[in-house]
Amino acid sequence: MTNIAKVIELFPIPLYTAKIDLSISDINNIEKEDYEKMPSKNGSFSKEKYLLHNSKYENLKKEVMKHLGVYTKKYLNIQDDIKFYMQNSWSVKHDIGDWGQPHCHSNSLLSGVLYTKTNKDSGNINFLKPDGYTNLFHSSTNVPFDKIGIHNCKEYNIQPQIGDILLFPSHLLHAIEENKSNTDRYSVSFNFHIEGEL
Fold first, then answer.
1. Phi-psi category of 99—alpha, beta or left, where left has phi over 0 and alpha has psi -120 to 50?
2. pLDDT level of residue 198 (50, 70, 90 thresholds)
3. What is the rounded CA–CA span in Å between residue 66 and residue 156?
4. For residue 171, which of 104, 121, 103, 111 has the smallest C-alpha distance?
5. What is the pLDDT of residue 164?
6. pLDDT at residue 1 above 80?
7. d(CA 104, CA 111)
8. Are 179 and 44 in contact (CB under 8 A)?
9. Which residues contact 136 (CB under 8 A, 6 or more apart)?
10. Average pLDDT, the chain
11. Closest by alpha carbon to 109, among 2, 198, 185?
């Protein structure tokens, strides 16, 4: 009898990815939002910080909340009586040459992004291994690897496509690469928290 070896992935950080069919009107409306430069000067965000609360985005918000339900109930196995609500939402515009510094989202439990206009050169989103998160070897020892994968990587890169939605714990550090395409890049970001008391 042969023993079957297996690796149990303890304490992973769950990143949810899926696709939403965007309407032309939603795509156009997001591009037409009123934008202002971020304090960092490397991108712009909508002046409206509760974007998806607007009735014109009602169907889009329902889609986002549907995916949040799949993420929290099917994959995270959070109890059915625990309800999440959308705290805020805003659109982001990255002009040619814009980028996003490493950051996380404070005062929320889960966060996400939906891509409404992007291409292969408009900038990947990079998820960064948190400082002090030792899932394999401590950062004091730099062990070389023949192949980089989800077990040993220090960052995980995704090239977003139109309609991609990503959901993740708000503490997960992420950054956006420079937009090297010849068109602006648009996305919508959102944060969630639990209703009521635990």
1. beta
2. confident
3. 25
4. 104
5. 98
6. no
7. 9
8. no
9. 151, 152
10. 94
11. 198
